[in-house]
């Protein structure tokens, strides 16, 4: 395997077998959070949520969880924080009131992203548990 990016090498507490999974989850969380924080009005409009400030807040929480995973992924509390962040996003999205098919598609995409991150979070937790056990 090619050399790991520097960030993966800075996860000393994380067992080597779990680093790629946690690294990918952290990067995905940072990227998704950045999109939410940078374009909250567009995302709120495409999902029927209507509250751009809430979308921005969700993005900032997502980035915090991603940064925690990248900086200290061996600590299971960051995986728990990521999972709680996903649960919070679902709670907020339940307030969405899509008015047309475009907004329904946007909302479905948002739920799909949350589902993907949740599954990756569960997988990362299992990898971490297997390597520590």
Detailed description of the structure:
- The structure is a single chain.
- By secondary structure, the chain is mainly α.
- The protein is built from 6 helices and no strands.
- The protein has helices at residues 6-9, 19-38, 40-47, 52-72, 76-93, 101-132.
- Helix 3 (40-47) packs across helix 6 (101-132), helix 4 runs antiparallel to helix 5 (76-93) and helix 5 packs antiparallel against helix 6 (101-132).
- The longest helix has 32 residues, at 101-132.
- The radius of gyration is 16 Å and the shape is elongated.
- The two termini are 25 Å apart.
- The model has no long low-confidence stretch (mean pLDDT 84).
Into which percent range does the helicity of residues fall? over 70%
Mean pLDDT: 84
Written as H for each helix and E for each strand, in order along the chain, the element string is HHHHHH
Tell me how many strands there are: 0
Multimeric organization: single chain
Tell me the major beta sheet. none
Radius of gyration: 16 Å
- Secondary-structure-based class equals mainly alpha
Inertia-based shape: elongated
Tally of separate helices: 6
- End-to-end Cα distance: 25 Å
Strand portion? under 5%
State the low-pLDDT regions, or none: none
């Amino acid at each position: 395997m090619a050399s790991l990016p520097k960030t993966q090498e800075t996860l000393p507490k994380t067992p080597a077998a779990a680093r790629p999974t946690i690294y990918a989850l952290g990067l995905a969380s940072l990227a998704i959070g950045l999109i939410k924080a940078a374009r909250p009005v567009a995302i709120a409009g495409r999902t029927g949520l209507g509250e751009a400030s809430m979308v921005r807040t969700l993005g900032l929480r997502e980035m915090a969880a991603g940064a925690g995973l990248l900086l200290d992924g061996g600590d299971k509390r960051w995986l728990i924080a990521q999972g709680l962040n996903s649960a919070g996003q679902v709670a907020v999205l339940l307030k969405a009131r899509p008015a047309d098919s475009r907004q329904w598609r946007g909302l479905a995409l948002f739920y799909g992203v949350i589902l993907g991150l949740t599954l990756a979070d569960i997988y990362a937790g299992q990898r971490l548990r297997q390597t520590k056990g």
